[in-house]
């Protein structure tokens, strides 16, 4: 490997002066993620084209240089930070929407485009890209693809694996080979599905330089309801009844009573209601709004909801703050974590966990997760996408508090085991990164499918024979 | 490799007497598919459990025996027939629905269960599995997974790749390793997505022994319309307007005028209407049926539809025969092909082609496909899923008519080139099999992505190092 100085010089030759940054402060900024994982890059580069990325990967291959592709680094499992030394590729300057068609229902964008930009752009046409991770305002197309992101509409629209029609990627090989996979059509059956192998691969197989995403019309109207239940079982039974009555649910979210109380308090929200909170949206034309809302209320009331807030439209739902608690419990947790520090000079470290269980197991799961938190004596908020069974417990500790950190880590281990025991999964939409490697093994072992890991490692070698792409992640 | 006699003896020991069939007539029956591809197996086996499949694959691996997994063999690209000698695995006896939950929205079934059985079973609960290939009555779960099947609801629900939550598969290795991948939840992010690598792999990577599929509620109501257009451009413009007006289309099918005429005639259908036919279904609650139907009619009329048939419900649509032409044009083509034979002792060979183009290119594509058929002087019917751009030209020739066969093959080559030129794909939901190998190469070359094929071949070697699983397919 050439010296750091030579590498910087070479990179400037390949990418241009202003595309290479080796200032310590800047490099450190790009070596951190949203939680606290921090790595050790020697430079950050800002390519502007696929051919620059190709030249970069070819150079990296020939010189055994490690490469860390990065979007907004808003993932929270340590998958976007440089685990060892190497070059961070930032896609800040590959941020153009290149093409779109509402007739053909796709949008093509560079990896640095943020999901929120896509949706602001499409909203003018009445269309949307329905994968909406909580980080939607910062998350980029490339990052969402690599982390296999999901969101509130997972039950209806799945996750990124269900939303990518075409990819342009660059391989970390001698030539920096560019591959164009898939296309613009929903149906595409040309050999093995390499697109979905790359979706969720956490930047370890290839570098995404362009993506074509499937878009859908925005619903004409949604009716929305928030209901509060003294008992978690009653809330879960309400969800069971919704499914039995064949509601085609658009959004189905929940928070447990402790989380509602703490979030309302921390963020000084106006919303009234106590207990476990269920939020349901159904997309129906205005003519059917009343009937649908009545039917929803009936389900809530017959399952012992203590109070109900209803909204005939999304606008009314926003005015009444129906989604505020759900959106707010992560920021509220950060505030609670910050305020609870013993030493105000330390950082609060906040973990968002990400298991799934079959929705029918959600009440049991939440009860057991609460017991776990009590057992370890750690504070926790939790809510999630109850429609698709995805639960996000949020936990925190103060930087330097090794005892608490250890407790949080043991909690997470038990949480993953619980998910497996209930027929669920250790990671739903955040991925493995550096924090869930143990979970990956646990789940494969529970399924007696350890050989799947060998297969994954061999696939990695096909795409990245020198192991230079985002090393240290997944296993 | 042991002798045929020894193989049969060994198989009987492993699977039981009545699970192994080497009668010539039976073996030949299982060596054919729905078109006319015929292979050369030495036996057919009927396992009843995963452990039997595992023992079988282990035996096959140790004895270099080729294995051809087979569902209903209703695929039409030659992917299910034994290309060389070897053993056909029929899943006729692994045909149980094992578990399901409308709350958790999944159904788990053995590979031999037919899709129609799944849907008859789910209909009682008001749910459905929305991937509905034309062969839905015979197509099996295992076959649909391996061929990556699609159908009329592709625009809304995608294809099999969007519908499989979990898989149990057996690998063709020393031990016949059983892998359990994925699970029951929509969200699942545990390492690389091996499930979607196997979906659409045409039985070349692993043998599916169980699948968990994502199910959805049946719509409460659909409104349906069939409109006839003198001009193809007008029909296409109507579709453009539907998308612009943000209809959330449930089904969007079409047939060109020649096909409508020939199908109505061949099947003696009652439906009245001449010209290019567009069929649209939108799922809306009853309260919004009138407004939706009016809006749909408005779009049709303003784009010069000459006649319109409308139905306020699916039942009414069936009574009025709205879908009969669409469903009938393949059987009608078979009848036309049979009746047009010069020698009644020969078989009519009917090909269903399967390209996609972006829907905005559909009118141009159909016009050019008609020109191609004229150029080669071959008869052709055609229709397709205009909502997602998937076009199915149907062509035929008489067995033994080498000149016509050659013309059909040259037509197909030009058709695939046309799809590529219009930004589409050579295969949408049927796959590559033995008939589209050239198309696979053409498309990869057009995208300058030949290396994708090398990657696919290396992936094949990981799963199937001896190349014993469905050899001769894909490349």
TrEMBL record, chains A, B:
GO molecular function, one term: oxidoreductase activity
Ranges where the FAD-binding PCMH-type domain occurs: 37-218
Known cofactor(s): FAD
Taxonomy, superkingdom: Archaea
Keyword Oxidoreductase: yes
The keyword Metal-binding appears for this protein: no
Keywords, comma-separated and alphabetical: FAD, Flavoprotein, Oxidoreductase
InterPro entries found in the cross-reference section: FAD-bd_oxidored_4_C, FAD-bd_PCMH, FAD-bd_PCMH-like_sf, FAD-bd_PCMH_sub2, FAD-linked_Oxase-like_C, FAD-linked_OxidoTrans_Type4, Oxid_FAD_bind_N, Vanillyl_alc_oxidase_C-sub2
The family this protein is said to belong to: Belongs to the FAD-binding oxidoreductase/transferase type 4 family.
Protein name from the UniProt record: FAD-binding protein
Organism of derivation: Candidatus Methanodesulfokora washburnensis
